[in-house]
Amino acid sequence: MPETAQPSDLSTSSEQVPPPQPLSLEVDAPQKEPSANAKEIGQFRAILRAVFSKEGIQLLLSHHPNCEKYESHVFKIGRLRLCKGCILSYPPVYTIILMYIFWNAARTFLLTKSFRIANIYWFVIGFGVLTLGGYALKKYSRIINDFTKLFRGILAGFLVASVFAATTWYYAIIPALLFFTGLAFLSLKRGKEMDTTCKECEWHGNFETCPGFRGFYERLTGGTSKDQQPAGQLESTQQQIAPSKVGSDTASEVIAEKEP
């Protein structure tokens, strides 16, 4: 007959088996993504930090990347780089306008008629001719190029003063149109020249890798710029690596065939 379990045995076995523990599931709270406004504020702060950094201020003062291709476009005072066009053109503009407004003797002289027109218009014609002549000859000398920047600043100053001196509406419109047309032409011309210079460079205008923008780009992105080779050097490096790899593979196949 089969033996039946004694009550003492059942009590002992029940004491040895622990009761089942309830399952507990730990659920992490979902992380909140930053809102669109927070992202925009963060981007705006990053831009401000980049603009007012040392690299950003240098770029604002020079208006050109820190590159040897643009060395002829800046004045260098120690580590400070200043845009030649702005330094030579803008001070004459403001000086002539302030002289006309606040200096009675200068205003009287400019409004005095000589050979049927006021002296101020003779200055406009004279410096207009000098500016056009300088543009035609600036490629032959850097000094001529610098004087051309100075002449166009003086011309712009007299054009603005002519608007204040005009007694009729058409005498005000013509100098204003000449001023804004020349300003737009110079802006488009300078932008096109810089775009061509950067695209013909070995870095092909890639601001992420260009050494001239490296410091400012690192400040803007809050990290380090990409350390890459120029596009031309990268292609040549790849072409040099490919034949050597093929040659090593072929040599290993020949050795494998000769081995028994």
Write the layout of secondary structure elements.
Layout: H1 7-16, H2 36-51, H3 54-62, E1 74-77, E2 80-83, H4 84-102, H5 104-111, E3 113-114, E4 117-118, H6 119-137, H7 142-165, H8 169-200, H9 214-221, H10 231-258
Antiparallel strand pairs: 1-2, 3-4
Helix pairs in contact: 2-9, 4-5, 4-7, 6-7, 7-8
Describe the structure.
With 260 residues, this protein is mainly alpha-helical. The chain has a domain at 85-200. Helix content is 67%, strand content 5%. It contains 10 helices and 4 strands, in the order H-H-H-E-E-H-H-E-E-H-H-H-H-H. The chain has helices spanning 7-16, 36-51, 54-62, 84-102, 104-111, 119-137, 142-165, 169-200, 214-221, 231-258, and strands spanning 74-77, 80-83, 113-114, 117-118. It has a two-stranded antiparallel sheet. Strand 1 (74-77) and strand 2 (80-83) form a beta hairpin. Helix 6 (119-137) runs antiparallel to helix 7 and helix 7 (142-165) runs antiparallel to helix 8 (169-200). Residues 10-14 and 231-260 have low confidence and may be disordered.
